Every structure is written in structure tokens, then in C-alpha cells.
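Re: weekly structure request thread

Next one in the queue (411 aa):
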Amino acid sequence: MKAEIISIGDELLIGQVVNTNASWMASELNAMGVDVVKIVAIADDKSQIIRTLDMASAEADIILMTGGLGPTKDDITKKTLAEYFDSELVFHEPTFEQVKKIFKARNFEVTDVNKQQALIPDNCIPLFNKNGTAPGMWFEKDGKVYVSMPGVPFEMKPMMTEQVLPRLREKFNFGVIYHKTVMTTGMPESFLAEKIKDWENSLPGNIKLAYLPQPGIVRLRLTAKGNNEEELKKIVHTKIGELKKIIGDIIFGYDDVTLEEVVGELLRKNGKTVSTAESCTGGYISHLITSISGSSDYFEGAVVSYSNNVKNKVLGVPEEYLVKHGAVSKQVVEAMATGVKKIMGTDFAVATSGIAGPTGGTADKPVGTTWIAVATPGNVISKLYHFGEHRGRNIRRAALAALEMLRHELI
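Done, posted below.
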């Protein structure tokens, strides 16, 4: 079963509003076994709507539309749909009662413009809008379903979950789509693809692999399609078991778990604490750690030692290290880690020192050069990284690399 999502509104095309509706709807449809084959955003324009509906009807069985159902002149979707489905607009008393109820609750009078919200095409099934004045509309034509819903998320979502999805389940016999995402870090997408190519080629025909990269992380999403969910899960988990034997050292979790969540849980499970000393990351590691609720159980604090003076005076990095080796060096970053560990009295400490860019690089230490150290209860380990030339991505990658180094010391 295939679906297309059409988002109507000039505000989407000029970037004034982010189209969160479409991604949410796609997720809901996919969870019940519907393939979303296309998502489009179009203007509040009659010819655009009609042309898009024509194309969608040739490609999909279910066409879901949002937006353009307001009472003002720029909202033309309802009139266009009435014309498209050869119907007349008729007054719908239950909808008008809802309009009056909402305006009464807000101490407003119902105007003639507002009253027009109760006009609906005579050949549609009206969908009650419990949070607004614009009803949804369900049309059927040539075995296909067309649904128009308000563009306001808090109006659309309950209409979708409580009315549209149940109706679709009654009408169509959906298969099963099962997703499982493997979270990896520390290996670029191209290197990862090369390493697991034989495993990827061994996937059954009903399982597809998607690479979803972002700075510092590559998500591997397995999508299985069939009729038996338990069988699909069994096959997918078997293949993931094979994958772990190949790249288990860089897999830190599954689905949408974050690295900071995983590290936090390991610290809590082991009853350990951590602190950070950050130079090039500027406090970003501590930000990630403290973004997790309950992180006060294991995170003591941080020193953002951006200057050499702070590295020396606060963290106790020897002046000779800074002069002889420079701030971006193995000696300095290890001293930073041991220094903050001692100051904070933690079991572990993480330190970073690097050249985030875009300026500050040299021939010996180009932009992206970063040293990361982890002080453990027994020793200090450090590693040199070369991230690239983009400042924001370098900071993100350095923070994730530091958390990954810490994770390996905790498992």
C-alpha cells in the first residue's frame, strides 16, 4: 500500500514554517505498514493542487493533505477539492455547532466568515475537528482514498490518530513494515560501507539497508517488509547479530538512543562519576552529558580551559608542556584530564584540546587536529584525531569521539 503526503501552504515554501506535519504523518503511516512514496509541499494555488492530486492519484493509493482549510480568502483547498470531486458545498450543522462552541468558549461572536467553515463538499465524509473549526474531509474515488486535514498540528494529529488511521485500517489490508536502527560512531560512512559490504549483500530481498550519516555518527537503518511482524523481527535481529561480529566495537546503541544517554547509563550502572576539561569543544561535552535527565548522579562539573593560563593555573598543566609541545598535544591533554579529575574528585575525566578552525591551523597542526584524553581510575589514555576544516562539525565530532572513548573504558 502506497501513500503520498501533500502539504499545502505558501508559508512552507518560503521557509516561514517548518513542515513537521509531513514527517510525523510519514512515521505514523510507516508504523502501520504503509509505504510513503512521496512528500510534497505546494502553494495555496488551485492549479497546483489539482495538478498535484492528478499526479498523486497515479502513484499512490492513499493521498493525505494538510493545510489550506482556514476561513480566509487565501485558504482555497476546500473549494478546489469540491470542484475536483465534482461536488457542491453544503452546510454541515454538526460542524457549525463546533464552530459556535469554540467561539463561545473564547468569548467571540461567530462571523459570516467563520460560518463558512461549516460548508463541506456533499460527497465527502466529514471528520470532526475537536480542537478547531475546520473539519477534515474524506473522499473516495476509483478505489483510492483522499483525506484533507487542517495544517495546525494540534488539530491534525488527533484527527489523524483517532479517525483517519482507524478508517484506513478498516478499508485496507496492510502488510508489516519493521524498522531497526543500529547506531555507530567512529567510522566514516564510506569506510563503514566497505567493511560491511559482504554482510549487506547477504541481506534477504525483503530487507533494505539505509545509511544515515551525520557528523560523528552513522545510523544503519534496516527496513523489513512482510506479513508477519514476529518473523521479520527474528530475521532482522539475526542479521544484526551477524553485524555485531563485524563492527561491534563501533556500535553504541539502537534506534534513536544518543551516545550521551548510553554513556550516562554506563556511569550510573557502574556507580562512577565523570568530569570534563574542555578547550576546543568549549563546554559542548558537558552540555551533551547534562542534557540527559538525572545526569547529576554521575556528572560533577567541568572546566572550560580555553586559554593556556587556565590550563596552567587551574588544571595544573606544567608550563613546560605548553611551551615545548603546545596546547594541542598529547602531554597537555593528558595533564588536563588528570588535573580536572583531581579537582573534581571523579572516577573518570575527559579532556579535549584542538584547533576547531577555520583559523589557527599550521602545517604541522592543521585545522581539525584534536587530542582527546580520558583519565580512568588506573591510567590515562589519549588519541589524536584529524576531523576536518568546519568548526561546528569539528566541535561535534570531538565531543562524540570523547564520549566514545569514555564508553569503551566503561564497558
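The mean pLDDT is 95. The first strand starts at residue 2 and ends at 8.
Next request, please.
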